[in-house]
Every structure is written in structure tokens, then in C-alpha cells.
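Input chain follows. Return C-alpha cells only.
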Amino acid sequence: MNTGLSLDPVEFLKGALEIPSVSGQERAVAQYLAEGMRRLGFTKAWVDEADNARGQIGTGPVQVVLLGHIDTVPGEVPVRLEGQKLFGRGSVDAKGPFVTFILAAASLPPEVLQKLTIHLVGATEEEVPSSKGARYVVDKLKPDYVVIGEPSSWQGITLGYKGRLLVRVRREKDNFHSAHHEPNAAEELISYFVSIKAWAEAMNSGQGPFNQVQYNLRDFRIEHPDTRQLAEMKFDLRLPPRLSVEEAVRHLSAYAPPVLDLDFSGREVPYVGPKDTPLTRALRIGIRQAGGEPVFKYKTGTSDMNIVAPHWKVPMVAYGPGDSTLDHTPNEHLEIPEFLKAIEALRFALTRLAK
């Protein structure tokens, strides 16, 4: 691959991995990435008010947004190159895909950049419910096509993600003697969670993984002040496209006794895009030109696609190198040949969009 400038792809990514960027602490890596885009000849490269790494290249009428995220979950993975594997927190999720975006855009020839304007967004706080970076840009850009930077493997094209709903449940009541035949606050929450589990399993009967409701208990706490008892639990649901956030809230509220206090947040809507659009066709062609065989994927997690899809009603997919089963693990690493193939495939795809 020839970017036209002396910036080694692997060293550029390695440098990004060496800068910690846990959610809320992304500014340093955003500055590094913006400087890299300047060196690669981007028309504009800067860090915006949400600490997003931003770049723009090309002058054409077709507007393409390449939106990845540059924050990571906590947990150090020592950055190192072992053979053809680059280890480091964010190598897969998702600095690797975003650096892929930068290098693919920078390698486009002038005749393509006369037809496309490409907007790079390295978004902040994707790994937490705030999704600060993506929310900041939704009313500032008007794309014709959108690619979200998430690991799909270089031959994979992700068409959809489940939605998400975060739930906090509290119960506070007067203390009483343990000999008194009455469930305590914690037991009331446990009963409620068991009922939600039964509801979800009934909803999942006969459904494949992408169409199932997933539930995950995240936290459970009990406090015993002198005269009161307090219990609180937090859980989240992953929602298939057939179950809207509003419908899930109605179900959860209906199963809750009036004495429970429910709070809902992180309302991310499910999204599934069509298989046949100019964008999916361009990516399929690009992957084949790079020597691969494209496959469509659906993810049971969430991404910034869930945030921007309700605002940008245009062809949209997620794409990027990496094995998503390594997300958040102590073994997170990116295969260098796959990284380079993804740059090549995306460059071919963007060229196709310009025709």
C-alpha cells in the first residue's frame, strides 16, 4: 500500500495503542491521530469539542462518513509485536478499524478525491452509555454513506446490531425482625429478576441468536442502615430488531410490583440495514478485489451505529479488521496481514463509490 507519505501503517497503529484512552480520557490519542492525518495530507485534521479525532479529505459532492471509536475499556494489554500479531488494548476494539479508515482514505488517488468528501470521526465514549463522540456529530454532518469502525474481520460486512436498555431497580423498606415472615428488599429484587428472566426465555423460544433477548445482571448491592433496608440491582438487555426499546420498557414495567423503583437509560435502538445498497456492493467488490470472499454479519452487541442510524437514514454498515471475540480480553491483538488487507479492501470500496 502506498499512502504517498512516509508513515508506516503498523507503526502508526502501534503508536495509537501505546497511548491509553479509557472512556473519558481520549484527548491525547485524538491529538496523535489528528497529527497523523495532517502528515498524511488531509485537508483538515483537528480535535473537536467532544475530544473526537476529526479529519476531512476530498472535495467531491458525495459525502462519506467513516466513524470509528478511539476509547477503550479499562485493562492494560502490553503493546508488543509478536510475529504477525500486534497486541494492545484497542487493537481490535476499535483503534485498529479507525486507523484502517485513516490509511484507506489517505491512499485514494486525486481523481477519486474529486468525487468524494470523506469525513473521519474517531469518536469518544463509545464503550460507555454516553456515546459522547457520536452524539456530538450527528447534527453536524450530512452523509450519503456511513461506515462504522468495528471489527468484522476484513472479509466481513456487518449489517446490524441489537439495541440495548440499561435498567436500575431499587427497593427501600423498613427493617423488621428476621423471624417475621416477609421478603426483605433484596429478595423482592431477586423475585423481580427471576420473572424478567422467565419473560426473556419465553420470548426467545424458537429464535436464533440475533433475534433473542439477552439479559445480564451487572450489579447487586444491599445496605442495612439502622431502621431501613435498601437493595439495588442493575441489569441490561440486548434487544433484537423485533423488540423496540419502548416495548421492552412496557414489559419490564408491567412485571414490576408498584413498590419497586425502576430507572431506564442507555436506550439504544436496534438497527438492521439492507443487504443490497451501493455501499454494500462497493464493499463486496472491494473485498473481492483484495482477494477475499465477503460475508454479511449481524452482531449481538451494540455500537455507535445504534446511535447515528436514527439520524442518518442512509446506507450504513460496520467494517474493520479484527476478531471481535477478542474484544475486551487480555489477549486482544490484531493480525497484521488482516489489517493491511482491510486497508486495501476499503480503498477499493471507496474508489467504487466514486464511480
